[in-house]
TrEMBL record:
Protein name in the entry: Uncharacterized protein
Keyword Membrane appears in the UniProt entry: yes
InterPro entries: DUF7475
Organism in which the protein naturally occurs: Haloplanus litoreus
One Pfam family per UniProt: DUF7475
Transmembrane segments: 15-38, 44-61, 68-86, 98-115
Amino acid sequence: MSFTSSFETASLTRLHWVGIVLAVITGVVHLVFGALAIDTLQGVSFVLAGVAFFVAVLLLLLDYRRRLLYLVGIPFTGVQVVLYFYLNWPNVLSPGGIGDKVVQVALIAILVVLYRRET
């Protein structure tokens, strides 16, 4: 597909919309946590990750290489889940952190289904 300046939402399924909502939720969480620690490297990385989720949603809505977005989104989100547990062990029971990981695991599952549907 070519890059256009208008949204193409007619082809989006309910599963796409659920994925969009999950990506927006985790994007907001990352922006908030990043803003709270913006003076640290981790805070900056959170802000960048949050921005990346919003850029991905925008590209999806523009119908820009959706299959590639799914494929890149799976490891991008998966690495964040793994890093959360690695960097926060053994204090991983933060409600915000665990809630975000639940959202991210659900997002990964949706991305896998969407990618497999288009293969």
